[in-house]
Amino acid sequence: MPPGNSAEAPPTPALVFEMLQAHQRTAALKAAIDLDVFTAVGDGPGDVASIARHCKASERGIRILCDFLTIHGVLHKRKDGYYQHTPTSAAFLDPRSPSSLASIAQFLGNPAMHEPYIHLADIVRAGRTTLPGDGSVEPENPIWVQFAETMAPMMAPMVGPLGKVVLNGHNGPMRVLDIAAGHGLFGIEIAKQNPEAHVTGLDWAPVLRVALDNARRAGVQDRYDMLPGSAFEVDFGGPYDAILLTNFLHHFDESTCVTLLKKVHGALRPGGKAATLEFVPNEDRVSPPMPASFAMTMLTSTAAGDAYPLSALAAMYNYAGFSEVAAHPIPMSPHTVVMGQA
Amino acid sequence: MPPGNSAEAPPTPALVFEMLQAHQRTAALKAAIDLDVFTAVGDGPGDVASIARHCKASERGIRILCDFLTIHGVLHKRKDGYYQHTPTSAAFLDPRSPSSLASIAQFLGNPAMHEPYIHLADIVRAGRTTLPGDGSVEPENPIWVQFAETMAPMMAPMVGPLGKVVLNGHNGPMRVLDIAAGHGLFGIEIAKQNPEAHVTGLDWAPVLRVALDNARRAGVQDRYDMLPGSAFEVDFGGPYDAILLTNFLHHFDESTCVTLLKKVHGALRPGGKAATLEFVPNEDRVSPPMPASFAMTMLTSTAAGDAYPLSALAAMYNYAGFSEVAAHPIPMSPHTVVMGQA
């Protein structure tokens, strides 16, 4: 028993029971999004009958689902039994909200992302994903098209701050390589913040089609190039003033990350910057909860990935030849930008 | 937006993200129990290597799993990286603890109990389980043998208080019928508290074998009879002084419950008592969290079951001819005994 707990209230089994049932909360939120419950609550009077009509669902099912969502903080139930948005559901679950995250449920709720958890004991025994090959980073894995198409809303709050950290006021001509570009929003943001920046997005070809659509939508397609292929195989070209590695290093073991960072170093002009965006837990690897928990996603979906604390990322950067490695936590987000100089 | 929230901090997407990943917590706890992690932590020094050896698992897998369990409150990680029990894991997850709940993960983590959540949107549309027939209450469903064999530790804290409420000091000869006896512990407790009580357990025959084993272990087998079959079809016999209906009514709609309670009423002597043990939410059906959330389990696993508030249970009792209906919440538990008099 850890020190300092002796004065606490006696433990109750509630936490154990709650963990064993936690999977219900994921399923309930996914079902509510799929049924369009949050539009119905935002649009209509909020009674069971009107929500059920909008969702083409049974009243028993809607009543139990909406009660469950209320218990868990993503709906409010008035004394008259009508449901309303909470501040959280209004901002992040109503599809009409500009900050809606509903689409990320399609990626995070993807059966391919959930299936490994059925075999988690086997994965812990083996120490790696039970997905075929290298798991989620298997070449041309179609989940990355879905990631690019659906996860942008989750990344949106990080885009502006990352752009500011990388540019640091720089306004002149510059070349930027966006490795594992995905939706492309990080590179596109650099092009928006600096009208003289030219961005090259690198990813699998089907993913880059999503990035190019986003570049067109942002009006920067004239300064947006595509480099299709694997970051480990394709010639980066260069030299670049900045190279972005967002949500990428965590998929690989440390030596693979160092190999990639050396290649990045070789494609930067002297003094150029590499910027990674990562879940960076504290050195204890058990705090804060969101970045630290991300290691579990890497255990289940990759052969050797991890959520690396700053000391590990800094060591990789230094081995690869970078200096002045520094962390820039993104406010109000679980992500951190870690930057090094070539 | 509900009133009173305007002064709160702006909402963050953390709750949405956490809900979409909550299924990881269920899988992690189930895997840790299956791998015997909590024995390893209780027995050994607590470093990754020794836990991995005990669990015959990889060090990468064990490190990430134990970090995840620490983040979510069921292990403690010391500054030197060694893992220890928290008060909760020592009491409820170490298999050597007399209050260990590890076995309930076998029932609650049963694939047959989890599978419906994959189709939750369809279930909400249909308003009933997608399991075959009547779902979990289909005749002879083998999950009830598993329930009887594994869920006793969860019910153990309720057994003594329920016995006290039902007996209310009564010490003379009495006959008790335990409907849906399962592990049999509730009826057995009556026989233990009153040496002149004679108990009849009613359940499917394969389930009653578990109850009879428990009656032998408690030394009350001479005063324990078995009545195999369906509570809706078998002749109860009687008259009884008390009839127990534990964890049963929630599987059915209100009219089915009334039908059964009428049959119960007819098998009681005048003044005899019927006692149900139930998850009883408040009238708002969204509090307290555990009893209120139980409606979701009934939606996914039954055709028409529910977590009934006291007003609904009292109405059923009254329709069936009972009077003096009263609720007796069990201290430190999410369960309530509701009793009526014939």
Kindly describe this structure.
2 copies of one chain form a homodimer. Chain A is of the alpha/beta class and 342 residues long. Chain A contains 16 helices and 9 strands. In chain A, the strands form 2 sheets. In chain A, strands 5-4-3-6-7-9-8 form a 7-stranded mixed beta sheet, with helices on both faces. In chain A, strand 1 and strand 2 (83-84) form a beta hairpin. Chain A is globular, with a radius of gyration of 22 Å. At the A-B interface, helix 1, helix 2, helix 5, strand 1 and helix 6 of A face helix 1, helix 2, helix 5, strand 1 and helix 6 of B.
What is the C-alpha radius of gyration of chain A, as a whole number of Å?
Answer: 22 Å
Q: Strand tally of chain A, please?
A: 9
> What's the helix count of chain A?
16
Q: What does the overall shape of chain A look like?
A: globular
| Oligomeric state of the chains in view | homodimer
Profile the largest sheet of chain A: 7 strands, mixed
Protein topology:
2 copies of one chain form a homodimer.
Chain A: H1 14-21, H2 23-35, H3 37-43, H4 48-55, H5 59-71, E1 76-77, E2 83-84, H6 87-92, H7 104-108, H8 111-114, H9 120-126, H10 143-150, H11 152-167, E3 174-179, H12 185-193, E4 197-203, H13 205-217, E5 224-228, E6 240-246, H14 254-266, E7 268-279, H15 289-301, H16 310-319, E8 323-329, E9 335-341
Parallel strand pairs in A: 3-4, 3-6, 4-5, 6-7
Antiparallel strand pairs in A: 1-2, 7-9, 8-9
Helix pairs in contact in A: 2-5, 4-5, 10-13, 11-12, 14-16
